[in-house]
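Practice set, problem 2.
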Amino acid sequence: MSRTARAPSRPRFAVLVFFMVYPLVTGLIYALTPLTGDWQIWQRNLVLVPIIVISMIWVIIPRIHRHFARWL
């Protein structure tokens, strides 16, 4: 008899994503502000969002799954 894997807890996953993405976003804002201080907000976001999305897809989400799989 095969055992099916239990689905990850969405609330736990959301909390982990929050605690990993918040410092990333905050750090990027502080890092980019001196370089983009006179830019419009949409221009800053055009730089910021791709960095965040790429970091989430290839770094943050895989690490959450790898390190917290048993807890999720």
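Problem 2, part (b): a different protein.
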Amino acid sequence: MAASTNDEKDVKLTALIRTMFERVPKEKRLTVDVVMQLLKAKYMATFPAEYLADRTVFLTRLIDSLYSAKSAETKDFGENGNSNSNDEDAEEEEEDDDDDDDDDDDDDDDDDDDDESDDEEEEDEDVDDESHSEGTDGTGDNNDGAPAVKRQRLEEGASEEARRCHEMVDCLRHLSYRVRKQEDGESSEAYLQQYLVPLFQEKGLDPARYSKADVRRYRVKRELEQLQSDGADVNLDRAARAGRGLNGLLPAKDAIVNIKTSQFLDEE
């Protein structure tokens, strides 16, 4: 009975690892340590500790097989790519024409898919944030015109402080803040505690929150503050707007009621 239960868990675990593998960016690599951390953090109800204790070899072989299969597919595609390039170009041109016709319809469906994409992005972030592989990004211009700082490469097996520095710098960069690079000879701990944490506090940010989801929240908060500073009313309650909503109190009989209405009402 126990063997049958473990077999069922192996099937579920294999499906979960395949999903994680498909969502890991190309420049990063899924490792057993990262998988174990995610399983213990989020999936202990499905995969108990005693089950995971002897699954290290199983996970290692599974991950290696996934990368081997992916390498073989890439190699086969490279060998056959030149012979099929002309046909593929013609097909891509036809697909581009069809895509142009469907763009208007796709735009109408984008809002409905936002909630689902946010959930998938958060799971992707968990895999990205805990991966110990290298990640690089080109330099670019910030929204306010300030030059972006080139992202520092994370070496394999980098310390927790180094990874946190890397992610905090990315957070500040996406919020268009200028960030100095870590100097030669400066430890990650010193760079974190003496520069990044004070900089977060100076900008009104939480040093413990620097994920992609936090970046979106910071941007929304900043936009609301800018609107309020300009005197805008950001109250989204329609019942509180003049000329809208219903009063829960019934007027006395034959009483004269003065209702303040908006000068410009929607045509309904």
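Answer key, part (b): The chain has a mean pLDDT of 72. Helices lie at 2-23, 32-42, 49-52, 56-81, 85-130, 160-174, 188-202, 212-229.
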